[in-house]
Amino acid sequence: MTALLTDSVQDVAVIDTALRLAVPLRAPLLLVAVLPHARPSVTAEADACAARAVVGRVRRAGLDHIPVVHRVTPRGTRLRAAGAVLDVAARHLSSVLVAAARGPAGLDAHLLAEASALRCGPFVHTAAPTAWTPSATQQYRPGAKDRPTALTGEA
Q1: CA–CA separation, 24 vs 132, rounded Å?
Q2: DSSP assigned state of 72
Q3: Which of 10, 60, 79, 82 has a CB 3.0–4.6 Å from the CB of 100, allowing a cystine?
Q4: Whole-prediction pTM value?
Q5: 99 vs 90, 103, 129, 137, 152, CA distance in Å?
C-alpha cells in the first residue's frame, strides 16, 4: 500500500484513506512524499511539522511504514513524472497507490491511473477531497463583516 503525499491540504484525506485500506490487512504503508525540484521560502521546520503529523497518524494506527522522498524533475512530461512515482511504488512491491484527486505537477489520481494503465502498474485509488468545516471553537456572528470570532462568552 502506497500513500502519495504532495504537500497539500488533501494529504490528510490521502492518509486517512490509505489507513482505512491498510489497517484491516495489516499491510505496511509506503509514504511517498513528492517534492518539487526547488522549494524557495519553505523552512525545514514546516516540513518537519507536517512529517510528524503524518507519521503520528500512521503510528497510532499501529502500521509499519516506509518513508520515501521523491523529487520531481523540472524536465519531462506529466506522464513521465507520474511514471517515476509508479516506479517508486513498484520498487517496494506496492499493489495499491492512494493519491488525491488534484495534485501538483500533474500528479493527481487521474493521471497516475492513466500512467498505471499504460505500464500495467499498481491500482490507483482516488482519495475524496475533504470539505472544510469550521472548528468548534469558532462561530459566526452577524455584523462585524461576518468574520469568525472565538467563543469567549460574549453575547
Answers
A1: 28
A2: P
A3: 10
A4: 0.70
A5: 15, 8, 10, 31, 40
* Per-residue DSSP letter, 39: -
**Number of other CB atoms surrounding residue 38 within 10 Å:** 8
Give the Cα separation of 115 and 111 in Å (integer).
6
Residue corresponding to grid cell 513498484: 90
Q: Which residue has the cell 512530461?
A: 77
pLDDT in tens, 49-79: 666 667 777 777 777 777 777 777 777 788 8
Report residue 117 as a C-alpha cell: 494503465
Compute CA distances 101 → 6, 53, 131, whole Å.
11, 21, 13
